[in-house]
Amino acid sequence: MLDMIVVAVQALLALLGGYQLFLTFFGWRRNKASMQHSPQKRFAILVAAHNEEQVVGALLENLKKLDYPKELYDVLVICDNCTDRTADITRELGAIACERSNPTLRGKGYAIEWMLKQLWKMPKAYDGVVILDADNLVNPDFLQHMNNDLCSGKRVIQAYLDTKNPHDSWITEAYAITYWYCNRLWQNPRTNLGLANFLGGTGMCFEAALLKEMGWGATSLVEDLEFTVRCVQRGINPYFNYEAKVYDEKPLTFRASARQRLRWMQGHFEVARRYFFPLMWQGLKERSWAKIDTAIYSLNVYNVLFSFIFSAILWGDALMPGTNHFTSLYEHVPQGLVATLTIVIYLQFPLALLLENVRSWKTYLSLIMFPLYLLSWYPITLHAFFTQNNKQWSHTQHTRVIRLEDVQSKQVS
């Protein structure tokens, strides 16, 4: 009986892995750019900030230089439970500081929900709402791309997420590789196939009328994934704009990275628990590939968890003296095929770097350490499973004061 369970779970995990590998082939081709429209949409740019005095100034200066009519966008910083000079710096640089104090309902999801309620009360009306993090930077044409998409009928848009400090440490290099891979071989295939893309927590743009209609309602530790699922349930597929670039600061140390990823996986478990079965059932009834695909993605956290558990069981069994006590699926598959698939799966990452025209030799050299980063997801996910009821939001400290010109100069060099 145990043998049947082990083999069945391995087969299911292999099918899910094969499905994602299949999708990557549709990401080799770049999706076409959106139709160009003259600037006409009015935007509210919401900047989520908690004690971000060190980095918020660089973003606000960056947003002043956007290639978009200044009268068509306003910048509002959500100073969420701040105890530093975030609000003062915001006002000094000409943006609107919206101060929120609620020590009980903490976290980005709650802050956004509060901010939207304030926004609808303001006398000025907006066509689109952009959400950024205080540590971000954006390319000057960012709002022009959002304008094009909204004018073309898109209602939820996710920008291309990049890192502004990829070469700070081996862990920031690992994040950068993951971002390039996800943009090209995870998001881009779904765009090309007409499936739903996934929101990434920042660089998001929403049609204001849609937000008013459905509300935010995403207050889990992964508010981006939760809102993605809520949109897909309503038949609204978030769209990925490859040309709109946002640069995000990544943690410098493994410890800070592990803490951030633990929060992500805790939230991911909650979203999977709440939304997987309703969305999968809805997708099957409606024969909607987009809904089935999103449901599968929401279950990915369990894919990682069971991969770790069953790998540990089989490795432990193999190291025990005597004959093996469990039958593995791989015993019935040619070893050469298993080895080939393992190599192909890992080669997706350097392939993504080549497709994204990454030139830094440091990044390619960091591929040596990259498997350690991938393996670290296993214990983090296991920890998240046993602590998933912990809804305590943890803040990732940002300290790297980098200007857009610094990021662009590193890309050229």
Walkthrough of the structure:
This protein is globular. The chain has a domain at 43-165 and 196-249: Spore Coat Polysaccharide Biosynthesis Protein SpsA, Chain A (Alpha-Beta Complex), CATH 3.90.550. The chain starts with a helix and ends with a helix. Helix content is 53%, strand content 12%. Helix 9 runs antiparallel to helix 10 and helix 9 (254-286) crosses helix 14 (370-386). The mean pLDDT is 89. The longest helix has 33 residues, at 254-286. The protein has 413 residues and is α/β, with parallel strands linked by helices. It is built from 15 helices and eight strands. It has helices at residues 2-24, 56-64, 86-92, 108-121, 142-151, 170-192, 208-214, 223-233, 254-286, 289-298, 300-319, 335-355, 361-365, 370-386, 404-412, and strands at residues 43-49, 73-80, 96-100, 128-133, 137-138, 156-163, 204-207, 239-248. Strands 3-2-1-4-7-6-8-5 form an eight-stranded mixed β-sheet, sandwiched between helices.
CATH superfamily membership of the domain at 43-165 and 196-249: Spore Coat Polysaccharide Biosynthesis Protein SpsA, Chain A
Percent of residues in helices comes to 40-55%
Silhouette: globular
Mean pLDDT: 89
Summed up, the helix count is 15
The percent range for strand residues is 5-15%
Question: What is the β-strand count?
Answer: 8
Q: Which structural category do the helix and sheet elements fall into?
A: alpha/beta
Radius of gyration: 22 Å
Provide the low-confidence segments as ranges.
none
User: Can you name the CATH architecture of the domain at 43-165 and 196-249?
Assistant: Alpha-Beta Complex
In CATH terms, what is the fold-level topology of the domain at 43-165 and 196-249?
Spore Coat Polysaccharide Biosynthesis Protein SpsA, Chain A
- From the N-terminal CA to the C-terminal CA, the straight-line distance is 58 Å
H and E string: HEHEHEHEEHEHEHHEHHHHHHH
Top-tier CATH class of the domain at 43-165 and 196-249 = Alpha Beta
Largest sheet: 8 strands, mixed
Query: How are strands sequenced across the largest beta sheet?
Result: 3-2-1-4-7-6-8-5
Q: Report the oligomer.
A: single chain
